[in-house]
Design a protein that fits this description.
The chain has 199 residues and is mainly alpha-helical. The protein has one domain. Helix content is 71%, strand content 0%. The chain has 10 helices and no strands. It has helices at residues 4-18, 22-29, 45-49, 54-78, 82-95, 108-118, 120-137, 140-158, 161-177, 179-187. α4 (54-78) runs parallel beside α6 (108-118) and α5 runs parallel beside α9 (161-177). The radius of gyration is 16 Å and the shape is globular. The relative contact order is 0.13.
């Protein structure tokens, strides 16, 4: 088992990596201004898509997922037990980044990257669920919520108890971050994914 200083250092560095707000950085560099003033105000890929740029949204998605996966893989290479510490720390970093006064994204892409790195069958099944529901409904939030509900079941089937616990924690946080979306879905007011207006 890694020492307490190693655990703390791993958590801190993973948190900082996870807290990089790629959606905000990319949209500013591309000249779109502050993404928090567009659409839902979220810093994730779905809101970046509302700028009209598919490429920028895809890059945000890849980078948000990549930072979660990178944190897990780097920590796991140093010491396997650190991987789960890095996973939750990077995910929390995305949700509550110090740079944005602890008001970050909803964590869907970063959760996907973390799960792919921690237990790839769980990550793939969760990703497939998101894609299927998003394609059927064109609601990103409905896809995220469905994937979050099913992810712990996938983990229970295909991995060990520590990873099941991690998956449950990540899924619960994703659901909690979508509280307002749940209300809009129930009222029929949620915005759909619109690829036609994006270039």
């Amino acid at each position: 088992m890694p020492s307490a200083p190693a655990l703390i250092l791993c958590a801190a560095l993973s948190y900082l990596l996870g807290s990089i707000p790629f959606g905000l950085v990319l949209t500013r560099l591309a000249g779109y201004g502050d993404i928090r003033r567009i659409g839902s105000g979220n810093i994730g890929a779905t809101n970046v898509l509302r700028t009209g740029s598919k490429k920028l949204a895809a890059l945000t998605l890849l980078l948000d997922a990549g930072k979660g996966a990178a944190a897990v893989l780097i920590a796991g290479a140093v010491a396997p037990p650190l991987a789960l510490v890095a996973a939750i720390a990077a995910f929390v970093g995305h949700l509550f980044p110090v740079w944005l006064k602890f008001n970050g994204g909803k964590g869907v892409a970063t959760a996907g990257g973390v799960l792919l790195a921690v237990a790839w069958p769980v990550g793939l099944a969760t990703l497939a669920t998101w894609i299927a529901v998003a394609a059927a409904t064109r609601y990103s939030s409905a896809a995220a919520l469905t994937a979050a509900v099913l992810a712990p079941a996938f983990a229970f089937l295909w991995t060990d108890p520590p990873r099941v616990a991690l998956t449950f924690a990540v899924a619960l946080l994703v659901i909690l971050r979508h509280r307002t979306n749940i209300g809009r879905l129930l009222r029929g007011e949620e915005s759909r994914i619109n690829l036609k207006k994006a270039a």
